[in-house]
Write a structure and sequence with these properties.
Layout (H helix, E strand, L loop, with lengths): L2 E2 L7 H16 L12 E6 L5 H12 L3 E4 L14 H11 L2 E6 L4 H8 L4 E6 L5 H15 L6 E5 L6 H10 L6 E5 L8 H9 L4 E4 L11 E4 L10 H7 L7 H4 L7 E3 L20 H19 L4
Parallel strand pairs: 1-5, 2-3, 2-4, 4-5, 6-7, 6-9, 7-8, 9-10
Helix pairs in contact: 1-5, 1-10, 2-10, 3-4, 5-6, 5-10
The structure holds phosphoric acid mono(formamide)ester.
Phosphoric acid mono(formamide)ester binds next to α2.
Length: 303
């Protein structure tokens, strides 16, 4: 029984297997349209989501499978006090694969241990979001044709940003990648990620503005300052406008760089940037569904 809890569950070989399958699905989606006939995906989202939830559900439907879900977290028996362990054991009896998002760090690991069917973490608190990483990697591979020899800058809330944590750990597995972290001091990337890079002898630096590095990067990965993870509203208000990418800053960037964002955005990318052909965040949304189709096929061992 396979499970995906964190980006540590991937190695370079199985990443390429999923990404190559995803590229083929992108080219010829019709070839895959009946492969999950008779299989059921359970979609358990205890935290809000648009992209991850709908892309997983759409992926399963496009593969010919079916989806069961709890429409709102507060209509499940969790509100009556049922434990996550019992919920997962129950849902395992109704489905062939489970996708779950939950606000608590570590919830994905607990669910994976207790599931009788393949389990996929769709985001656990501020910890990890490994399928967003697959989305990001497919976008980078499709747009830049490589996953190595890149200068990657990530900008915004690097403390709570689970998409960033998964992405940096995963891109650090590919040769000659370098990282630039752009954040306020209060939202720096966690020490365990910096220590991991130091241990692997991977170059990185921390800066406070986009302007000082944008001309050097192949990828600028913007993220939202995450209001829901702050304990203190005044602190959020002080930091929420720390970074705004606009056309003036983009005029300093290389012609062949790309801008990514896991979305949703608030105001950290001005809408005027959407028309720049280096802005790839809405392509990223489409690739998210495609790569989740590939992941479902691999986890159900249909391919
Ligand atoms: N990128 C992402 O996880 O978006 P959602 O929160 O809408 O799923």
């Amino acid at each position: 029984r396979k499970s995906l809890v964190s980006s540590d569950d991937f190695n370079v070989d199985n990443l390429y297997e999923i990404l190559n399958l995803a590229s083929d699905i992108y080219r010829e989606p019709k070839k895959y349209s009946n492969l999950c006939n008779g299989y059921v995906l359970a979609s358990l989202f205890f935290e809000p989501s648009t992209r991850t939830r709908l892309s997983f559900e759409s992926a399963m439907l496009r593969l010919g499978g079916s989806v069961v879900s709890i429409p709102e977290p507060n209509v499940s028996s969790v509100t009556k006090g049922e434990s996550l362990k019992d919920t997962i054991k129950t849902v395992s009896q109704y489905s062939d694969i489970i996708v779950m998002r939950h606000s608590q760090e570590g919830s994905a690991e607990l669910a994976a241990i207790n599931s009788d069917v393949p389990f996929i973490n769709a985001g656990d608190g501020g910890h990890q979001h490994p399928t967003q990483t697959l989305t990001d990697l497919l976008t980078i591979k499709q747009c830049l044709n490589r996953l190595d020899n890149l200068v990657i800058s990530v900008c915004g809330d690097l403390k709570f940003g689970r998409t960033v944590h998964s992405l940096v750990k995963t891109l650090s597995k590919f040769p000659n990648n370098k990282f630039i972290f752009i954040s306020p001091e209060e939202l720096e990337i966690p020490e365990y990620i910096k220590n991991d890079l130091i241990k692997k002898n991977i170059e990185f630096k921390e800066v406070r503005t986009i302007e000082e590095v944008i001309d050097k990067v192949d990828i600028l990965y913007m993220t939202r300052i995450q209001r829901e993870r702050f304990f203190n509203e005044a602190e959020y208000m002080r930091l929420k406008d720390s970074f705004v990418l606009d056309n003036k800053k983009m005029s300093l960037a290389k012609e062949d760089m790309i801008v990514l964002h896991p979305l949703p955005r608030v105001n950290e990318i001005a809408e005027e940037v959407d028309d720049d052909n280096r802005a790839k965040y809405f392509k990223q949304v489409k690739y998210g569904m495609i790569v989740r189709m590939a992941l479902i096929l691999k986890f159900l061992e249909v391919m």
